[in-house]
Amino acid sequence: MTKRYPNGFVAVDDLHIDVPKGSLLGLLGPSGCGKTTTLRMVAGLVPIEEGHLVVDGQELSAAPPHRRDIGLVFQNYALFPHMTVGENVAFGLEMRGVPRSEIRARVDEALEMVRLPGYRDRKPREMSGGQQQRVSLARALVIRPRLLLLDEPLSNLDAKLRDEMRVEIREIQQRLGITSVFVTHDQVEALTMCDVVGVMNKGRLAQLGSPDDIYERPASMFVAEFVGRINKLPCEIVAGDRVRLAGTVCRSAAHDLPEGRGIAAIRPHRIHLTAARDPNLVGNSTNAVKGIVRTVTYIGDIVQYDVEIAEGVLLKIEQHTQGSGLHHNTGDEVLCEWAPRDMLIFGRDDA
Ligand SMILES: Nc1ncnc2c1ncn2[C@@H]1O[C@H](COP(=O)(O)OP(=O)(O)OP(=O)(O)O)[C@@H](O)[C@H]1O
Ligand SMILES: [Mg+2]
Hints:
351 residues; alpha+beta; Rossmann fold; CATH 2.40.50.100; 2 domains; six-stranded mixed beta sheet; five-stranded antiparallel beta sheet; 20 strands; 31% strand; elongated; binds adenosine-5'-triphosphate; binds magnesium ion
C-alpha cells in the first residue's frame, strides 16, 4: 500500500507485508513514520488508492469498514461517555443486527475475556484508564473479528499497568488465535509481544523480521538505534572482518567488508568492563580496548559508565550490579572487552 495525502505528502510508501494467520505483527517506528495511516488503511478509515488489502485470499481494498470484520483499539479508548460499558461493548453487535437475545451473552463473554465481569452497568468515567482500555478491547473482540488492529493501546497507561496489559493482550491474542497488528513506538512492546516486527522509517519498511532478528541483526543503523541503546562509533574498515577503532584493530561480525570508513555499533550491555590489565593477555577471540572511566551512573539494577577510549571518543557500557556493590570509579583505568559477534559494522550510507 502507498498513501499519498492530497497535499502530495507520501505517508506510506510501497509497504508490503504478509502477516501469517494467527500471528501478531508489530509495526514499530518513530512518530510520523506512517504507522497510524497504515492501520487506518487496513481498517478502511482511509481509502486505499494505491495497493491492495487481501485477507484470507479475499480482496478487501474497496470494502467499507463494517464489511471488513476488523476490530480496532485506539490509544485514547474512544468509548462513548454517555453509554454504559455494556452498551459500549454491544454497539458493534447492534450495528450488525445481531439479535438482542444473543447480544447479552456475547457482551458478558467479551467482558469476561478482558477480566471485567460485572462491570456492564458502569460508565466509562467511573473506571480507571486500564479498565477503560480493557472495555475498548472487549468492544473490538465482541464482533469476533478476523483481524484485530491496535494503535498504541498502552501508551496512556502507567508503566506497571502497561507491563500487565502487554501480557494480557498477548495472552488473549494467542488464545483466540486472532491475526493482529499492533502499532507502537515502544521497542519493548514490539520485541516482547510480537511474532514479527516491521520497523518503519519515513513511510517505508526498514526491516521485517522476528524480534531476535531485529535486535541482533538489524539491517541498518536506523533499525539498530531504534530498537535499543547502542554505541555508534566511527571506524576504519581494514580488511575482511577487521576494523580500526580508537587506534586498535578489532574483529567484527561482518565478513568481506569493503575497505574505507564505516560505523561500528555495539550495545552497551554487551561490553564487559574489567580493571586495566595488559590487553595482550586477553584471548584474541575477544576485542579489548583500554580506557578511562569518565562518568558513573548508578541506576540500581545496572550501572552505566562512559569510558573514554581515545581522545573525545566515549563508549557507553552497562553492567549488572553485584550484591557486593563493587563497581569502577571515575578516573579508573579499565579494559573494555566484547566479542566480535557483538560488533556490527555499517557503511556510511546505512547510517
Ligand atoms: N491528512 C493528512 N494530510 C497530510 N499529511 C498527513 C495527514 N495525516 C497525516 N499526515 C502525515 O503523515 C505522516 C504519517 O502520519 P501517521 O499518523 O501515520 O504517523 P504515526 O507513525 O502514526 O505517528 P505517531 O507515532 O506520532 O502516531 C505524518 O508525517 C503526518 O504529518
Ligand atoms: Mg500514530
